[in-house]
Amino acid sequence: MKDLKTTREKFQVKLTSIVSLPQLELLKLEYLSRNGIVNELLKDMKSLSIDERKIYGQQINKLKDEIAKQLDSTQKKLISSLNQSKYDVTLPGNMRKNGSLHVVSYAIEEISKIFEKIGFIRMSYPEVEWDWYSFEALNMPSNHPARDDFETFYIDHPENKEFGKMLLTPHTSSGQPREMMRLGKPPIRMINIAKTYRPNWDVSHTPMFHQFEGFCVDKKINITHLKGTINYFVKEFFGENREIRLRPFHFQFTEPSFEIDITCDICDGTGYIFKDELQTKNAKSRSFAEKIKCKLCKQGWLELGGSGMVHPNILKFSGINPDEYTGWAFGFGVERVMMMKTGVGLNDIRLLYEGDIRVLEQF
Ligand code: DAH
Q1: Who contacts 295 (Cβ-Cβ below 8 Å, separation ≥6)?
Q2: Quick one: which of 91, 172, 190, 84 has its CA closest to 134?
Q3: More confident residue, 348 or 181
Q4: DSSP classification of residue 136
Q5: So what's the pLDDT on residue 341?
Q6: What residues does Mg(2+) bind to (predicted)?
Q7: Which residues contact 158 (CB under 8 A, 6 or more apart)?
Q8: Per the count of CB atoms within 10 A, which of 24, 138, 239, 361 is most buried?
């Protein structure tokens, strides 16, 4: 009887330490299996008288029942607590936000792919550059008034005897002398996409922005190659319906020089918005409809950027014979072309660099 009492007590203690179903299963085996503790107790009966056996047997059965009941109720408790902590599959999940590239990086990728397809090599050159590559080698000597156009960030660093002051590249055109000197000899077909810096801050300027510079030098290169290449880029990037025009301009490093204009997508290049939009899809045959002036463009055209035929001096300065080779170049703003693309709808360039996730995640 004493054994029964200690068995009961020990079981009770062990049961309180059970926290999982597998543990409970082991305890059940320990006590109630064929060779378990309770059946072992039955072996003691041999030494008892018949009357004693009867009472002892009843007590063992009682103990067995008690243990079975307690195991059972602990099992129920464990199962119900497990159910409570299980996932509630009806709750909405925690959405993980996908990261993405910055919209300007997407534009850069798109631009490089467009030029890669026609054999242009993507290059990048130092962001911290010497005056010589940015100005002197581009036909802009230090006293030339054209240098005033480029309000430049100069670096507080001793001047280099050969290359002058250290600065942040104000334009990607510094890639032109760099590329000519890297290769030593044409043919050159380069697209230089890089960060550029000028101290301006307003709706259409940030102190850091990006430009892409197309540069092509070879034998017998002429304006038709320039126009054809830019036309190809415009159709690929903006869409088949956009047209370009070359407008005479002046740059130190090209002669002749042009500004490239592209037809406005808001007014289809007509310069007017037609009040009766349902009239017809073809803008040119809508001349009788009521119209108002397009506010986005100048008479149907938007400025894309500068270009021209490489000035002979530029070739000469970088060791290429202008009698043998000719070339063209253009320099456009990445943010600018990206914002001009149909459907982008950004009207302030500064939004791109304020890091506001609500703006950036829309692209
Ligand atoms: N570098 C000029 C600028 O930043 C743009 C430019 C104009 C680049 C004419 C060219 C070019 O290559 O031919 O304003």
Answers
A1: none
A2: 172
A3: 181
A4: G
A5: 84
A6: 255
A7: none
A8: 138
